[in-house]
Amino acid sequence: MVSQVSGRQTDVVGHRGAPAFARANSEASFRAALEVGVDRVECDVRLSADGALVLVHDATVEMPDGTPNAIGSLTHAQLRDAIPSLLVLDDLVEIVGGQAPLMVDVKGPGYEAEVAAAIRRHRLAETASVPSTWVVTLRRLRAAFPGLRLGLSTGHIVGGAPHALRPAIGTTVRAVLPKLIPVALAAARADELMVHHRAVTPALVDAVHRAGKKVNLFTVDSEEDIRRALALGPDSIISNHPDRAIVLRDEYDARIPSPNG
């Protein structure tokens, strides 16, 4: 498939901006991603206690006094005390200013209505993609926006497993995903797969593409991993080092002729 965003075989997505340059999900990180020329900008979204769509990855945050608290139990102001660089989704839309489409990762269920309202308010339905690990969230968003691009995120177990167990877990996951994922995508009513790069095989990419869906690999950072990921033929790679990924992607494109000439 050729990207409708970049016209290339593989887009480069800035994972929470460009954390290699600045704190993830911060204004500096997102501006760095735009500066290096990403094709898409990815962010994480959670809901604060007072209804703000805050850009935070983890479910908890350490407060100034050292105690951990759930993101959803704190107000926007309290979260700002704990995370001075904290942004809300409205901030990111203003920062990006239409320079690149957004990939808005919804980190949990229960606030689909707030996400849908923000998408409507900013008229993002035709350009944004919205991934989640939660099938119920994707189905609710599909009901709200029949044409919205949704992504099912999976394969985290491969990257999160203890190092000694990763080879065995990776082998098992890679063996079963090509059969399971097309069914899972249909059940979630998703258009795209977001999957850990170590869980991917050519068979999985082929199965997803044959189902008419797109494949996005996360989080691909080292030169070795980026080169391997590009060779698999995904629709995008999501990276903390988008500058490196762009250079290697462009080198790869220069060596491999496009099927469209």
Report on this structure.
- The protein has 261 residues and is of the alpha/beta class.
- It has one domain (11-46, 100-255): Phosphatidylinositol (PI) phosphodiesterase (TIM Barrel).
- 41% of the residues lie in helices and 19% in strands.
- It has ten helices and eleven strands.
- It has helices at 27-36, 76-82, 89-96, 112-122, 135-144, 156-160, 166-188, 202-210, 223-231, 242-255; strands at 11-14, 40-47, 53-54, 60-62, 68-70, 102-106, 129-132, 149-154, 192-196, 214-218, 236-239.
- The strands form two sheets. Strands 1, 2, 3, 6, 7, 8, 9, 10 and 11 form a nine-stranded mixed sheet that branches. A two-stranded antiparallel ribbon has the order 4-5.
- Helix 1 (27-36) links the parallel strand 1 (11-14) and strand 2 (40-47).
- Helix 7 packs parallel to helix 8.
- The two termini are 13 Å apart.
- The model has no long low-confidence stretch (mean pLDDT 92).
- Pfam families: GDPD (PF03009).
- Residues 10-249 form the GP-PDE domain.
- One of its GO terms (biological process) is lipid metabolic process.
- GO terms for molecular function: phosphoric diester hydrolase activity.
- InterPro entries: GP_PDE_dom, PLC-like_Pdiesterase_TIM-brl.
